[in-house]
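Tokens in:
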């Protein structure tokens, strides 16, 4: 049974009409019915094209989270032969929010990593809704180092709202695990291809998404925080998700403009959830193309290129547009005080404030002990 988003409701009516016509045709075949079915299906495709040509960043966020959107497990099942999963971080436990293992991708041995959200209530709970704990990231580190030992390229599927923020995860070193996994990605001497297939949420996504090549599906999102989180923090109002999604610049087009990703992978009309098999095949073709380009490069060159790629992010005004958007939001919310907040959060501002505090502290000590 198909799940329709609010802005897809016109499609639901047309789909229901097609099902009715097909049922009638099964009972009493007719050329007229077949012709009418074809016309309605063409109308559905045209309606999808019209809707998806102008969806907002918030609507695209909803598409990225669609329950029928293909998950990492579906990509593995359709693209990877002889997949052999590996479990555990050898420190604490197994984390099913990250899948990992070796297999054959179109004739080449690869390591596959990916966030797994699950497809129903039971599997979503089992995989913690795609939110990894420290064990998941440490498992990823272990497998990536193993892949490097055997000169095996890495394919990573990114689809997470973010790393799990639970107390236990923090006690076991969540931030350290994310940082070490990112460092591990940057230090590997084998090709890494990362694909954002749904949500790319904050450091939890970056940790296994730091690749030589980063691809992003057309209706995926990639951001430092979710629109809901941004809304509640910046506006103190959880109803400002539409404005937050626009301000965050989280779409594939936005990421391509600032060189965070290399290419946008087009989705079937109506999104990947409408035709999962075709979407998966498109991703497979792009992986194959870039894997062939990277396979002949020396390990040190791959490592250096990857490190330089991420060092360049934020330099040379790459984020000027995003910074302007953020400043606009601050001005709208705080007025002139927004400029003060930007100053206080700047490097120079922190130095000035630190110097003032140091002078005050020195003055107090001098007064007390003289």
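Residues out:
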């Amino acid at each position: 049974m198909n799940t329709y988003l609010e802005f897809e409701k016109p499609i639901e009516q047309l789909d229901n009409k097609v099902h009715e016509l097909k049922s009638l045709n099964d009972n009493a075949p007719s050329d007229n019915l077949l012709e009418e079915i074809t016309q309605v299906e063409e109308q559905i495709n045209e309606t999808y094209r019209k809707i998806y040509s102008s969806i907002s960043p918030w609507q695209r966020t909803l598409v990225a989270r669609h329950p029928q959107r293909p998950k990492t497990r579906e990509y593995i099942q359709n693209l990877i032969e002889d997949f052999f999963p590996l479990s555990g971080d050898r420190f604490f436990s197994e984390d099913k929010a990250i899948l990992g293992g070796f297999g054959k991708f179109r004739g080449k041995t690869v390591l596959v990593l990916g966030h797994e959200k699950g497809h129903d209530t039971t599997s979503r709970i089992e995989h913690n809704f795609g939110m990894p704990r420290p064990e998941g990231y440490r498992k990823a580190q272990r497998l990536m180092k193993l892949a490097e030992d055997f000169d095996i390229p890495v394919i990573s599927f990114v689809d997470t709202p973010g790393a799990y923020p639970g107390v236990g995860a923090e006690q076991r070193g969540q931030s350290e695990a994310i940082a070490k996994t990112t460092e591990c990605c940057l230090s590997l001497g084998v090709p890494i291809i990362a694909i954002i297939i749904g949500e790319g949420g904050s450091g939890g996504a970056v940790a296994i998404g730091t690749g030589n090549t980063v691809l992003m599906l057309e209706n995926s999102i990639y951001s430092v925080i979710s629109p809901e989180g941004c809304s509640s923090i910046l506006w103190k109002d959880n109803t400002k998700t539409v404005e937050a999604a626009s301000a965050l610049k989280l779409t594939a087009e936005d990421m391509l403009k600032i060189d965070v990703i290399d290419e946008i992978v087009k989705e079937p009309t109506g999104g990947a959830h409408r035709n999962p098999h075709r979407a998966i095949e498109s991703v497979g073709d792009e992986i194959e193309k870039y894997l062939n380009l990277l396979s002949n490069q020396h390990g040190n060159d791959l490592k250096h290129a990857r490190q330089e790629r991420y060092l360049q992010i934020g330099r040379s005004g790459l984020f000027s547009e995003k910074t302007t958007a953020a400043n606009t939001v601050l001005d709208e919310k705080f007025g002139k005080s927004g400029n003060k907040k930007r100053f206080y959060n700047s490097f120079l501002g922190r130095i000035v404030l630190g110097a003032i505090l140091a002078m005050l502290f020195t003055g107090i000590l001098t007064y007390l002990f003289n």
